[in-house]
């Protein structure tokens, strides 16, 4: 049976319910991580992986449904983080109000950028997003921006001593183990939301645009506004990551807007698998762990590059993407063997 709301979205009640149940189970299971991983260093490392996963998830959503690779999502991630810092430091707002400001501001910025770039595709889209993202980076380090961003020195976020966020004190927000439930919940809900969007009628339209935009236009579909909306949704997810990063770190620097941060998110998504919803999440966690290990050798970028080359050569669809492809091939072979 399909409810009227689900019918309008192109979702069956069973499919939506299954997704919600799985998300609830994963959410509950993830809450146990701080009780299992007791070492503060490792829980902080996993926490950083969750924050990067939100940024990688937003990049993977665009790549999966529209075939577009963005290097500009750090603008929403970093822009939201800076808005949190400015709201608290300059305007004296509470952490909750600052977080809402960062989320709304990052999403609006994504909408504005979407209106400018979504008509392009391929390399043109990639370079436009990179250029606009780097423009915001350059703006953050200008002399006139020092009172707001601190330029290269960064912005120290000074919360009030009695400030709280969803019942957590400032000290608890800065503790990865105690702030874990908030970030884990945000990640699971973001993944569920993107999964529902991808399974909806809107997701089908996006995939049609990805496969053949010209045919979609000839079929009577407006291909511009769906691309704008998809870009804005992905930007909102990246903004969530930026907000949570700022609340936890209580410090924002231009690095959150840099090309290196954009590269981290893209590499994480590629390693996990751009074509699978959970790929960027797995990739982000593995990327953070690998970075910690590679950094001990003093050859961080050398080993990172070699690891990426190996993944692209032997697992071209990423880890989860390649596993999914192998499983589908085995299923087809089994069906062919069992057919009369």
From TrEMBL:
One Gene Ontology MF term: branched-chain amino acid transmembrane transporter activity
Protein's cellular compartments: Cell membrane
Keyword Coiled coil: no
Keyword Zinc-finger listed: no
Membrane-topology annotation of the record: Multi-pass membrane protein
Transmembrane segments: 15-36, 42-63, 75-93, 99-118, 177-197, 228-253, 265-288, 300-323
Annotated keywords: Cell membrane, Membrane, Transmembrane, Transmembrane helix
One GO CC term on file: plasma membrane
Record InterPro entries: ABC_transp_permease, LivM-like
One Pfam short name: BPD_transp_2
PANTHER family: ABC TRANSPORTER ATP-BINDING PROTEIN (PTHR30482:SF17), HIGH-AFFINITY BRANCHED-CHAIN AMINO ACID TRANSPORT SYSTEM PERMEASE (PTHR30482)
Protein name, UniProt field: Branched-chain amino acid ABC transporter permease
Organism of derivation: Intrasporangium chromatireducens Q5-1
Species lineage: Bacteria, Bacillati, Actinomycetota, Actinomycetes, Micrococcales
């Amino acid at each position: 049976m399909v409810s009227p709301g689900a019918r309008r979205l192109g979702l069956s009640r069973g499919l939506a319910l299954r997704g919600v149940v799985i998300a609830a189970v994963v959410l509950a299971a993830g809450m146990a991580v701080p009780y299992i991983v007791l070492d503060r260093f490792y829980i902080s490392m996993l926490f950083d992986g969750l924050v990067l996963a939100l940024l990688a998830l937003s990049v993977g959503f665009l790549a999966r449904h529209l075939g577009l690779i963005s290097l500009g999502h750090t603008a929403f991630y970093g822009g939201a983080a800076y808005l949190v810092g400015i709201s608290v430091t300059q305007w004296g707002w509470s952490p909750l109000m600052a977080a809402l400001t960062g989320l709304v501001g990052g999403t609006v910025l994504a909408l504005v950028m979407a209106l400018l770039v979504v008509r392009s595709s391929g390399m043109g889209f990639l370079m436009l997003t990179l250029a606009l993202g780097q423009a915001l980076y350059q703006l953050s380090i200008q002399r006139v921006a020092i009172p707001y961003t601190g330029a290269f020195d960064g912005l120290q976020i000074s919360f009030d001593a009695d400030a709280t966020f969803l019942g957590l004190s400032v000290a608890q927000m800065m503790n990865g183990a105690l702030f874990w439930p908030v970030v884990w919940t945000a990640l699971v809900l973001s993944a569920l939301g993107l999964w529902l969007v991808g399974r909806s009628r809107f997701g089908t339209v996006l995939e049609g645009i990805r496969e053949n935009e010209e045919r979609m236009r000839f079929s009577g579909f407006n291909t511009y506004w769906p691309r704008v909306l998809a870009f804005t949704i992905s930007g909102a997810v990246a903004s969530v990551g930026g907000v949570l990063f700022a609340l936890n770190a209580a410090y924002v620097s231009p690095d959150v807007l840099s090309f290196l941060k954009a590269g981290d998110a893209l590499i994480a998504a590629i390693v996990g698998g751009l074509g699978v919803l959970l790929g960027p999440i797995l990739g982000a966690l593995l990327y953070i762990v690998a970075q910690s290990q590679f950094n001990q050798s003093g050859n961080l970028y050398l080993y990172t590059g070699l690891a990426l080359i190996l993944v692209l050569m032997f697992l071209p669809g990423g880890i989860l993407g390649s596993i999914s492809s192998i499983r589908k091939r085995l299923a087809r072979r089994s069906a062919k063997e069992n057919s009369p």
